[in-house]
Specification:
The protein has 537 residues and is an alpha/beta fold. The protein folds into three domains: 219 residues, Alpha-Beta Barrel (TIM Barrel); 105 residues, ATPase, nucleotide binding domain (Nucleotidyltransferase, domain 5), CATH 3.30.420.40; 149 residues, Nucleotidyltransferase, domain 5 (2-Layer Sandwich), CATH 3.30.420. The strands form five sheets. Strands 1-2-3-4-5-6-7-8 form an eight-stranded parallel barrel, surrounded by eight helices. A six-stranded mixed sheet has the order 22-21-16-17-18-23, with helices on both faces. Helix 2 crosses helix 3, helix 11 runs parallel beside helix 12 and helix 17 packs across helix 19. The radius of gyration is 31 Å and the shape is elongated. It binds N-acetylmannosamine-6-phosphate. Keywords: Carbohydrate metabolism, Isomerase, Kinase, Transferase. Belongs to the NanE family. One of its GO terms (molecular function) is N-acylglucosamine-6-phosphate 2-epimerase activity. This is Putative N-acetylmannosamine-6-phosphate 2-epimerase. It is an enzyme of class 5 (isomerase).
Length: 537
């Protein structure tokens, strides 16, 4: 019998290494001891620290050819039990005799012919190390109490009905690591970065099978990925709820397939705003695969709150994500409209992949930033709310940038000047040579010009994209550029006009929903949306 120190030393020899499971597809062209041995030798030559081999005959063949440790198992398809991996005492004995130094057994909580404790005792009596293949942390705890030396996450995803997930169960690695026993991460580690993530989660080593020794599976992954890309997906239903209008659209990639618009009636309240959107999209039911909402105000942890209730009186912490999920019965994402528009301009508009700060200057002022290819949402969803920046003003009252430089601010300034004109009329008057209108536009431009160098210094974006009805009005950006000439060149932003107009938020939100779907089950992917609100939109 292997002494405890020898068993510990052997287990330790696995630390930080790769275990290659050489289990060809049964009945496939690689099935049989000769191919298994070739796979094993190739793995050993390339630096594997151990092998996982199924069947006593294969174990014997590999043991004769390779010098690295073998984890042995026997797979049986039995009528009376769902347990497949090493169900019998005889299997343990045959594996030990064939040269396995570690014997893996199914240690899931399911009906079985032989008790887990009995199998572990037999493994130990034969001088081997017991590896318990489990599907959850409770099973890991029980197997550990019964004397298992190594925990394997092998069975996660294979004990429930339905197809197994695509990605490995890294959370289980982390949980099992907390029990203090060595953990071998196993099951669907199909990419090196996933294996690396398992090590970060506390695994002593990672077992990789299909991605190295099942060409049929690897072929299928490529076939499926190519086919999925070649077949057009259902569109996303994008919803943009602004202070005056609500737009709904079917979006695929950078294309708006169909778009409708209804007024937002501020007095109706949040439930009705959502119902109005659902009503506008009612005959698209069944045609989309998710709902992406871009809304004025702050979205934090799936809850919606007004930043400036004058734009839209959103109640505090309205559960927008869960309410939309109930309305539409689809996966939902929601975020601030200007953040969504920033992402839209970054992907498909003026940004085209360049880091940017986006400013929408219309009735209010909103914004969003993409830095290092990531949309900044911030810890609470506030990142990019440029219109909320406090601005010094006469009398030292609390003023925000949007109180002084937005379309509403310009209309208010016009009233003070004795003119009844909204932003559109002010620009028309300026074009007609009215000096009162020019003064109002220049005052708004001046407030923005004072804010932009500070934002440039903070984020250093490649461009600042200006959008919104006021931002895109004739003469606005040239005047802004002129007002910026007095600043040092390092602080002077490079300005660009937004290209997607009113569709930026719809396109950006729809794209984010798609990206989240890719990331959701993948703990290792870089966070698309930074801050504590990551992906929780
Ligand atoms: C669930 C089950 O029966 N797993 C088996 C256990 O030995 C093998 O079929 C897997 O190939 C092995 O776990 C490695 O996993 P992957 O091939 O995903 O890298």
């Amino acid at each position: 019998m292997t002494s405890q120190p020898a068993a510990t030393a052997l287990t330790e020899s696995l630390r930080g290494g790769l275990v290659v499971s050489c289990q060809p597809v049964p009945g496939g062209p690689f099935d049989g001891p000769e191919s298994v041995t070739r796979f094993a030798l190739a793995a050993q030559n390339a630096g594997a620290s151990a092998l996982r081999i199924e069947g006593a005959a294969n174990v014997a063949a590999v043991a004769a050819a390779c010098s690295i440790p073998i984890i042995g198992l026997v797979k049986r398809d039995l009528a009376e039990t769902p347990v497949r991996i090493t169900p019998w005492v005889e299997d343990v004995i045959a594996l030990a005799e064939a040269g396995a130094v570690i014997v893996a057994i199914d240690a899931t909580d399911r009906p079985r012919p032989v008790a887990i404790g009995t199998l572990i005792e037999t493994i130990h009596a034969r001088g081997c190390i017991a590896m318990a293949d489990i599907a959850n942390v409770d099973e890991a705890r029980k197997a550990s109490a019964l004397g298992a030396d190594i925990i394997g996450t092998t069975m996660s995803g294979y004990t429930d009905v339905g197809p197994p997930p695509r990605t490995p169960d890294i959370r289980l690695v982390r949980e099992a690591f907390g029990l203090g026993k060595p953990v071998l991460a196993e099951g669907r580690y199909n990419e090196p970065r996933l294996a690396a993530a398992a090590i970060r989660a506390g695994a002593i080593a990672v077992v990789v099978g299909s991605a190295i020794t099942r060409p049929e599976h690897i072929t299928q992954w490529f076939v499926d990925a190519i086919a999925a890309e070649a077949t057009p997906q259902k569109p996303v239903l994008a919803i943009d709820i602004g202070g005056t209008k609500t737009a709904v659209a079917l979006v695929r990639g950078d294309q708006i397939i169909e778009r409708r618009q209804v007024p937002t009636r501020p007095a109706d309240g949040a439930e009705m705003w959502l119902s109005a959107a659902a009503h506008a999209a009612r005959d698209w039911r069944g045609q989309y695969r998710g709902v992406a909402a871009a809304v004025t105000g702050l979205v934090r942890d799936g809850r919606w709150t007004a930043v400036n209730p004058a734009t839209l009186p959103v109640p505090e912490d309205f559960p927008i994500v869960s309410r939309l999920a109930e309305q539409f019965g689809q996966p939902v994402l929601a975020l601030n409209d200007a953040q969504a528009a920033a992402w839209g301009e970054y992907c498909f508009g003026a940004g085209q992949g360049r880091d940017l700060l986006f400013l929408t200057i219309s009735s209010g002022i909103g914004g969003g930033a993409v830095v290092g290819g990531q949309l900044l949402r911030g810890a609470g969803g506030l990142a990019g709310h440029v219109g909320q920046i406090p601005v010094p003003s006469p009398g030292n009252r609390h003023h925000r940038l949007e109180d002084l430089a937005s379309g509403f601010a310009m209309a208010a300034a016009a009233r003070t000047a004795g003119q009844d004109a909204d932003a559109k009329a002010i620009f028309a008057a300026m074009a007609a040579g009215e000096t009162w209108a020019e003064r109002i536009v220049d005052a708004a431009v001046e407030h923005l010009a004072l804010a932009l160098p500070g934002l440039q210094a903070l984020l250093d974006p490649q461009i600042i994209v200006i959008g919104g009805g006021v931002g895109l009005a004739t003469g606005f950006v040239p005047r802004l550029e002129a007002a910026l000439t007095r600043f040092p060149s390092a602080l002077k932003p490079s300005l660009a006009l937004a290209r997607l107009g009113a569709d930026a938020g719809l396109l950006g939100a729809a794209d984010l929903l798609d990206r989240r779907a890719h990331l959701e089950s993948d703990e290792t992917a870089p966070t698309l949306v930074t801050g504590a609100a990551a992906l929780n939109v």
